Every structure is written in C-alpha cells, then in structure tokens.
Amino acid sequence: MKKRANYILKQIVCIILSVIVITPLYMVFINSFKTKNEAARMNLSLPREWLFSNYIVVIEEGNLIQGFLNSFLYSFLSASVAVITCAMAAFVIKREKTKFNRMIYYFILCGFFFPVNFVTLMKIFNTIGIANTRYGLIIAFTSSMVPFCIFTISNFISSVPVEIDEAAVIDGAGALLLFFRIVLPLLKPVLITTFLLQFMGVWSDFMTPLYLSSSSKMWPMNLAVYNFFGKMSSNWQYVFADIILTCLPVALIYFFGQKYIISGLSSGAVKK
Amino acid sequence: MYKQKIYPKWFLIMPLVLYVMFFLTPGLLGVGYSLTDWNSRSLEINFVGFDNYIEIFTSNKDYSAGIVNTLKFTVISNIIKITTAFFLAVMLQKEIKGRNFYRSVLYIPAVLPFLIIGIIFKSILNFNNGLLNTALEALQLGFLKQQWLSDLNVVWKSIYMVDAWRGIGYVMTIFLAGLSSIPDSYYEAADIDGASFFQKLIHITLPMLTGAITINLIFGITYGLKVFDIIYVLTNGGPGHATEVITTYSYTLYANGKYGMATALNTILFVLTTIIGILVVKYMSRLEVQQ
After folding, report:
1. CB B66 within 8 A of CB B250
2. Pairwise CA distance, residues A245 & A228, whole Å
3. A262: contact with B, CB 8 A cutoff
4. pLDDT (tens digit per residue) in A5-59
5. How many helices (H) and strands (E) does chain B have?
6. Bridge partners of B47?
7. Which of A149, B74, B137, B219 is most enclosed, with most CB atoms within 10 A?
C-alpha cells in the first residue's frame, strides 16, 4: 500500500517537472504564430489564426540565413578540427605513459577552469592579423575545446586494447596508418559524442562572438537573435519565431543524437 | 623502441599549440596588461603598477561587489541544482513508468542556448503579461506576483530559478549515469540487513557516487565562476548594479575601451579559477594513482 502511494507520488512529481520544462517552450512555439497584439499577451491559448508569415518576416529581417550559415560553419569546422586533432594527441598521451605525457595531460586539463581572456586574445589576433575574421572565431572556438576533448577522448582510449597497436606494428603499419585506419574507427562512439557536444556548444556560445566579431556579417544565429530581440522587443511574435528557428538545429541534433549525447556525459561519471 | 614510431610526439602539436597560444597565453598576457593603463583612447600603454586592482577594490563603482556576487552565485546555484538533481536522480533510478521520457524531457533545457533561455524567461517573468504572474493570478495566488527582474529582493531568486530550470536536467543525467553503475546486489544485501532508505542513501549511494559528484562539482564551479550569458541577457547587471558579476563588469569595461581594467578583472577571475582548478586536478591525479 505504502509502495503504491510512493509510486503515484513519484509520477506526480515527474509530471509536474515535465510540465515546468515544456510549458515555456510550448508558449514560445504557440506565440510565434500569433499577431502582434495576441502575442503581446504571451498566454498559452492557440492563435486565432496561424500566421506562418511571421517566420518569413523573421528570416528576411533578422539576417537569419547568413546567421545560420555562419553558425554552421563555426560549429562544424571547429568541432571537427578539435575532435580529430585531440584524438591524435589523446591517443599518444594514453598509450605512451611517460612522465612528459602525463604532465602535458594535466597541463591541458587545467584549461577546464580558466576563463578565456578575450581582451588579450583580441590583441593576439590583431598582432597576427586575424582580428575580426571568421578564422579568428574558429580558432578561438577550437582552442577552447581542447581540454574537454582531450579529457573525454582519452578516457575512452583506455578501453581500446593495446594489442591492436602491436599487431599493426608487426604488420608494418606506420603511425598515421595505424591511427587513421585502425584506431580512429574504434573510437567512433566517443568521437561522435564529443563532436555533437562541441557542435552544440559552439552553436550556443554567445560570449565568444560577442567579443570577437565586430561586423554583423560574421554573426552566428545567437548574436543575430540577440540583436533582433533588441530591435523588436515589442514584436514578441517575431522574437519567438526567431527563437524557434535558432533552436531547431540543436533540437534536431538532440533528438537524433540523444544516445550519444547522454552516453558522453555519463562516461566520466561511471568511470570512477 | 617501436613506441616512438607508432606514438609520435608530433601528434600532440596541434592541440598543444592551440591551447597554449590562444587559451593560456591570453590569460598570462592578461596578468601583465592588468598592470597597465591600456585603453582605446591612447596608443601608448604605460605601466601603472597595481592601480587597476586598487581601483577595483576601493572605487565606488562596486567592482568588489561583482566579485562577491560571482562567488555567491557559484555556491548557491550549485547547491540548488546539485541537491535537487540528486534526489530526482534517486527517484528516477528505479523502474518507473515513462522514465526514459521524463529523462529526455528534463534534459532538453541543457541543449538550448543560454541566450535563448534568457530571452524566453524575460518574457515569462514580465510583470504585466508574463506567464508566471498570469499563472499565479489564475491560481488565486496573485499575492505572490513579483517584479521578478527589477525588484532588488527578488532578482537573484529569479536568476537562480532560471539557472536551475536549465541546469537540473544536466546534473541529474550525470547522477543517473553514476547510479546505474551501482550493483543491485548492494541494495539487496542492505535490505536483508534491514537497512532503512536513508541508511542505504548514506552508506551505499553517496560513497558510490563520488565520481559523479566530482564531475558535477567541477562543471558546476567552473560554470558558476564564469557565468555571463544568463545574467547579461536577463538583467544586464541590473537593477542598478545589483546583479553584476566579474564577467559582466569586465565586458562593460571592454566595451568602454578600458582594456587595462577589464583585464585586471579577468585576471582576478583567472587566479580564482586557477587555484580551484589546480586543487581539483591534484585531487583527480591522486585518485588515478590509487586506482
């Protein structure tokens, strides 16, 4: 009897929490189709008339196509470069456990904690001539991913048997061949996880482009939305439509890649 | 011998160069520039000693309150998220219908950009039409209505609320992963010995969750110290300067061209996070040795 009551209580708590999470998102979705006056009331009722045209206005006025392409470029390139190069480094660090490699490992892990000093980073970019360019942004994103990628990937590498390396050496494979043909495919799960997490991380990053991109041509979606919100704060229907479009890509990634994302978060927690 | 051939050192170069040049060097350079009057108005940069730091701790602009706020936010927001998420995880650990659905739903906020969440909650916390006040009225709880983002006594609570809305699912997911690695037999043995729920919690669950707790603390603390987006969007440091943190002050100073001052604030953050970081990394490397 007590068990039954307990179970029902649990279900109620879960339902309430789910409602708390979903309601704001539902509110945004439903209001993105309303007229200006209706949306200003920000309630949960269905729109009297579904205005899909809000989305067209937003795409045209909000500089969204440019923003989308920028966001995609930044997220895709920096996550790919970081994941591949960090996998190479993590492989060597974990396989050859010299004092030097251990030191490098912990040296990089310290980066988990540091904030990036964007003011001086800008100075460095100025010196090497990539300030206010897309290259600068991509380099900034990639560098800030290094600690996380090294940490996650090297945790996984311990589970790939060393015998594989030895067999490859006996067959005469060199370092590049061994790594790209044999080790990399075995790392696929962790590489996908890390890539997805970093991709979403860049997509959500607001501070980096805020500091490092002065021209609106370089803005990722995030910054375009923020700017649009500043201009349109009385037109909530547009702001909401803009929000939906910005979240759509990450929502899709989450929907299809959920397995990888959750397992990636879990790996660190289970290990110890 | 063969190790040099198949584990070449040059595999380390790319991440190491990126990390050192564009991550670590700006931080260290910042320490140097924080001792100068570097600003956008003059090309010359002069050494001024500790003037910037003296201004931070003594000026009437309340920069030091920003530092205190940062620490306060780190402690309180983590206590809220970690304790709530822990009990939720314990609850969702056992078989319960719809468990996977609840887990997926509760994780959704963690994948949305903070900026977006900030904008959404700016609408929800709006005094006149916002969803929260409307809902309170509909529930006959109108007396609970608040100026969520402009009342000095409430604004921090609103920030914690939004932060928890985004963060709890994430923290919970990490706890759930830790919980799933505890063998059922431990609990069964405890049941046979007649252990109560709380005895099991303290003597089995908590000790077995050390890893998950460590991870949550690391992510939570670093996130808290570096918090920017949510505060920038929700309150922009206001009302007045009540919710400024180190990063928002630093950004304002940067935007006003006071680079030296901005860097000094960043350096304080750098030192704070470095001390905590070194302690944690030391602790982790000790754990690894024990394994």
Report:
1. no
2. 13
3. yes
4. 888 888 898 999 999 999 999 999 998 888 888 877 777 888 888 888 888 888 8
5. 16, 0
6. B36
7. A149
